[in-house]
Amino acid sequence: MDSIYIRIREQALKIAAQFPMADFYQTYEEPVEHSSRFFLKDPVINELRNFVEEKIENDFGHGMDHADKVALDAGALIIIEGRQYEYSSAYLEKRLRMALCAGLLHDIRRKEESHARKGADYAAEILKEYSFVKEEVIDICIAIRNHEALKETTEAPTPEGALLSDCLYDSDKFRFGPDNFTTTVWDMVAFGNIPFKRFISLYPKGMAFLNKIRPTFRSRTGRAYGPQFIDLGLAIGRELYEYIQNELKEYF
Fold it and tell me: pTM for the complete prediction?
């Protein structure tokens, strides 16, 4: 990575550290921890994660770290929402496993055009090797197909499938908060070898895109807590842009 981007990223990390953690993680500490414990201990998830780690490329801002975060938060959202719908413990565990799988696999084809559709098709083949019934595989794959923002979606065949899809989408869009300026942007810049002047010219467009994401959260919990993620990201982005304009004028 170019030294100027290293400097900007270091500043972004300093700025982000001054902001509070998103309320979601404090309000729902127990479901977040539940999802994490299951993620670490479940043999199906462990096997799938090992597979994904071998296949996914850890650049472009959507590598293994991103997949882990999306999986964990999708799992937490399923727990929260599933309890509201009074899922039984056994059924909730089954849907939790599916949410974690969807999160791990959702960007498995990230660098390809129509990556959500191609990722869903690829996931359908992978999941044949796991202990999911056909209907569960369909739900996971529809969730993966539907995770892109501002795109047409495929209707899930059941309310439970629709909820899984909504939770994966919301978890992925949580990443457009602080994560966007602490990790994602810099990985994408490094991968694309983007010249600094072009980066600056694209910055306002990127901020406008975050604003477009803000009203798109889908689950009840996502709609309640997702906008704050975006607001935190926007606040970090605005302060960082001010720093760039004031401190790095010689690079413009």
Answer: 0.96
